[in-house]
Amino acid sequence: MNLRKTSKLVLKMSAKTVFWILCLSVFIFVCTRAFALGTAVFSNEGMADEGKGTEVTITIPAGMTDQQLAEMLKENGLIENEYIFRVQLVLYEAEYLPGDYVLNTEDGPQDIIELLRPEEES
Hints:
The structure is a single chain. This protein has 122 residues and is mostly helical. It folds into 2 domains: 1-42; 55-116, 2-Layer Sandwich (Dna Ligase, domain 1), CATH 3.30.1490.480. The chain is 56% helix and 10% strand. The protein is built from 4 helices and 2 strands, in the order αβααβα. The chain has helices at residues 3-42, 66-75, 82-91, 109-116, and strands at 55-60, 99-104.
């Protein structure tokens, strides 16, 4: 083999190696982000540590949208991310009625959704 063919072969192998390393890096990045998103959506961690929470009274007016509810909860320090909470509202088929509610910053998103859920009549 001459030098030119050897150089082309080495360059071609190097390009393939770099390509596959980039593909692997992107794959790891996407998997890491997907895992973080799944953890955030399905976690029920409150904003405050157990025993260190504070009670917050919120008022839900009639006709409040999911987005408005999520914004209110975030403003009151009850949830960390309003977009994740809106996904949780859909996943847990959340329903809520207008009224005053006393929530705690220790409550996780699933707990909040359950506290806001109307009681079923028997």
